[in-house]
Design a protein that fits this description.
The chain is α/β, with parallel strands linked by helices. The protein has 2 domains: 49 residues, RecR Domain 1 (Helicase, Ruva Protein, domain 3, Orthogonal Bundle), CATH 1.10.8; 130 residues, 3-Layer(aba) Sandwich (Dna Topoisomerase Vi A Subunit, Chain: A, domain 2), CATH 3.40.1360. Helix content is 44%, strand content 12%. The strands form 2 sheets. It has a 5-stranded mixed β-sheet. The chain has a two-stranded antiparallel ribbon with strand order 1-2. It is elongated and about 60 Å long. The structure holds zinc ion (ZN). The site of zinc ion has 8 residues, from helix 4. Zinc ion binds next to helix 4.
Length: 200
Amino acid sequence: MRRFPEPIQNAVASFARLPGVGPKTALRFVYYLLKIPRHDLEVMARSIITLADRIRTCENCFTYCETPVCDICRDNRRDTSMVCVVEEPRDIATIESTGAYRGQYHVLGGVLNPIDGMTPDVLRVRELTERVRNDESMREVILALSPTMQGESTMMYLTKQLSSLGRRVTRLARGLPIGASLEYADEITLGDAMKGRRDA
Ligand SMILES: [Zn+2]
């Protein structure tokens, strides 16, 4: 890259860390930001810092929230007999939008991928098994990970880890596009996959 003034280089380096953004796109962002009013830049910068100041993870399910325990975990109208294991907090929003599920959630924090350092101790596997073991009312664990290669091997691993706890372990029905992330499933397909779940 041609030599840019240092503030531009620094901003490009920051944006290039975002998923799906390379140096070229990062530079486009920076040129755009240089054109907008200073006030808009401040609003944007503040909204980013506020994430670090106000967002934390739920003590129970590990989704993002502003309180120690999230809205779903605090909602006593939710079914406590089932817990749905997802990769990331965004998957909760996707499943909630189907309206096909009224139970609890557990955010794993990714899927197993030892080459990238995603080992069982990095994911919240121990937290999951502890939670299921300690909660007598929990009868079913639904594995709702993406049907990718890593997602599949993670579901196999979790099924084995949970097998001794005497609960039903299920996974979403087939019909989700193989190899695709749950993020891109449409509501109807995902809702059907939830209703038609089967033993893992
Ligand atoms: Zn929660």
